[in-house]
Design a protein that fits this description.
175 residues; mainly beta; Neuraminidase; 4-stranded antiparallel beta sheet; disordered N terminus
């Protein structure tokens, strides 16, 4: 069972020296929204903002990633909020400051409808996903739609379940 904090994510720096403006992004078990709050708030309070599942953007958000990289179809670098929608088999991208019934900037549909996107990683303008048999990592270009897979990384022994990256390396945790 996923807890309320199943998809807690990241602090977002604002770039002022000595001062950090950070936000926490959360999904709610079975909820249809992403809750965003200021990291300095304590106690019970209303969130700073919410992103709703409107216009078919997402129905069951299960994983979140904040990513700065190239915008689809451009060389411009932007910071976006990537949300896995397990119900619709898609990753939906929003501007980092999205609020309310926000419009998605783009959607990524993956061809394997049996395998959810709960474990994806966007890194260096590529989308990494654990494959359907959990022994491989599928690598897609950062593009909207359902692009052809660029390549597949395979391990015949391990059952992969979590992806992380650092520098030039991709790490896959195994069970």
């Amino acid at each position: 069972m996923r807890s309320f904090f199943a998809s807690m994510l990241l602090l977002f720096a604002c770039g002022q020296p000595g001062w950090v403006n950070a936000e926490i992004f959360l999904t709610q078990n079975g909820g249809d929204r992403v809750v965003v709050d200021d990291h300095l708030r304590t106690g019970v309070s209303r969130p700073s903002r919410e992103i709703f599942a409107s216009q078919g953007n997402f129905r069951v958000p299960t994983r979140i990633q904040v990513y700065t990289g190239k915008q689809v179809g451009s060389d411009e670098r932007v910071t976006e909020l990537w949300v896995c929608d397990e119900f619709n088999n898609q990753i939906v991208r929003f501007p980092i400051d999205a609020e309310g019934e926000a419009e998605a900037t783009s959607k990524f549909f993956w061809p394997d409808a049996l395998h959810g996107c709960t474990e994806f990683l966007v890194y260096r303008d590529e989308i990494f996903m654990v494959g359907p048999d959990t022994r491989e990592v599928e690598v897609y270009p950062n593009a909207s739609g359902a692009p052809d897979m660029k390549r597949r990384l395979r391990d015949d022994i391990a059952n992969l379940f979590e992806l992380r990256a650092d520098g030039n390396r991709l790490y896959a945790l195994t069970s």
